[in-house]
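Quick entry, no commentary yet.
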Amino acid sequence: MGVKQKTKSLRARKSELSDTFFQLKVLQQTDKKPNEKKFPAFQHTLHQAGFDELKPETSDLFQLNIGKLCNQTCAHCHVDAGPDKKDEMMSREHLDICLDIIKKHNFTTVDITGGAPEMHKHFRWFVEECVKTGAKVMARCNLTIICANPKYSDIPEFYAKNKVQVVSSLPSFSEKRTDSQRGDGVFEDSIKALKMLNEVGYAREGSDLILDLVYNPTGAYLPGNQATLEREFKRKLKRKYDIDFNQLYCVTNQPISRFLDYLISTGNYESYMETLVNAFNPATVEGLMCLYTLSVSWDGYIYDCDFNQMLDLKMKSRSKHIENFDLELLNQRKIITGQHCYACTAGGGSTCGGEIVSD
């Protein structure tokens, strides 16, 4: 079944929020209205919790957003990815530089994301070259790309051959909830793609092929307990569709890009930010992904995390781009924080690998 999108990218809609500077004005309450609740600065909350500033630990995860081109335009997307983003794709030259960096510094994990990274014309070559370095390779797959076009239908076999860890988004085991967030037909195509991944060995008993799912709430609320949700997802997907997966990652929706647009348009922005601020959990701080991850954008700039990348909050370091990559300098930097960081520290916390601390 073809996916029918319910929205367009912010850029296609000519929304003010397509400008990251405008998003930051909203988050920082630069133009605060008289009756608008003022939220404490994240850095102040961090300081009160006993953390003067955030500095990186060992950076062992190299994450690349190789392009914003995507076959979907999900309502919650913090990347603002979509079919209209053909110009925001990493060049072959920059992919070569990234490979040299991965080899030179022995990164243990390479996390490839997008958009739909599979739509990049050099994607398969890049995956194969990353595998040769000995690093664990992860690919963030939206699942429907496997069914979007016959040229992607062998993606499961390609992933299995290269032992790629597949991390796939599935916001619900409910068709209605999934399609409301990601587009009509997404759930049906996602189930089909998961079955195809299972058929080549992913997540089956005795297999070393890892298939993880990513859950994020379909509304303006925090995710539930990760372990509880994982059990429920496994039970429902196995019983109804005979689908297996390894782990479920619970991710809190970031109040940026299209989800920020959703919050504002539905009148939920203030209440959602209040929820995040009130749920701040100091126990999450030492597990934040910015402490051990370097995030590289499609145009080669380096960021503390994927979310800072989408807000264009560049590194506080003389090494800001892969063309002058200096790991020693990067490991000495101060991590940039902002109001969006409340999402990563609320409740059990949130990273690209799911919950930080268990209840």
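second:
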Amino acid sequence: MILLQFTGLSGSGKTTLAENVSMMLSAKGYQVKIVDGDVYRKTICSDLGFSKEDRLENVRRLFKVGCDFVESNCIVLMSVINPYEDLRKEIAQFEFVKTVFLDCSLDKLIQRDPKGLYQKALLPEHDSNKIKNFTGISDVYEVPLKADLVLKTGLETVQDSTQKLYDFIINNIVTNQSSFKPTNPSSCQLPISFSIERLQQDLLICETNLWTPHFNTGRYEGNWTSVSLRSQSGKETDILSFPDKEYKNTPLLDSCSYFKEIMDWFECEKEAVRLLRLGSDSEIKEHVDNDTSYEDGFFRIHVPIVTNSEVFFYVDKKLVPMKMGECWYANFQRPHYVQNKSSEPRVHLTLDCIRNEWSDNLFSQMGFDISYTPNNDQYSEEEKQQIIAELSRNPSEINNQIIADLQLK
């Protein structure tokens, strides 16, 4: 639906406005969730202090909670001071996020001080009652350079601010719905799971010196390596994947009986089959892979073998919660990126498959419209430029024609 990230100093009215507008929206039948920073400081953020790093982590956790509610078709009001501009921009890149700045002067807030917090923050350093690291007094607050809505809560009444906020939300919901074009999901979990123990046993067989760094070094930071179970040349070190080519099993696959079972479960032609390892503290940068959607007659499957909660896989700005042993499809023609913030590598088994009648039956069961054909104008300008950049990396007559067609749209 929509998530509003509030930003404003303590006492500027974030909680009050969130509660007021929540009642108005609920009365109209909308599902509303308030993600209040003060409340979550006592639960999932209770281990965090008030250093810059902890404040950043606090907001990121709240945003993750908010995203889960958005997935449930809720209007989310994220009420937190949110003092840093870079983090607000990081969150605002998601299409469903709007930034609301509650603008109230520090003098006005000190004058109001309903909780007596500013009074304590302004006490002398030696006073045991003094609040330290207080945003706006002894800690930084960066005024937003750009916000989708600015509410002058120091000058206007609570009723006026509430009505402006309500109108803004309603207008943006209408805008989002009127421009919405139904499409198939950008990612989807398949109705099958595999044995984690057997996956990891076969992975041990593949722990050789054959792992090859990904050829596109500009696309990632850290370590991103691969070993092939099925490749064009039949070699384990051949990790290239191009459409409309013949592929052969590699000798390594013959030793991996469970990987072969998984391949056989997919009753369709397979192209490249690989293990992809993303090292600790490594990142695959946002990019698109051309002609890799189910609608293009192709589908790429991911089966996580080793992963954890600190691995973040985003497709089309949405977090895809892949867990070990699960089986996932994703439309990699949409922008996607992966961050491994853990101290351990992440390893996936990936299969590039060709669409056929069997897969159409499977994807229909998962809610796909197999007759759906994407419109040529489905891409935003940013996404179009990403596709052009990817095509330009592999010049060919066909790719040059696709680029020319895209540039005319």
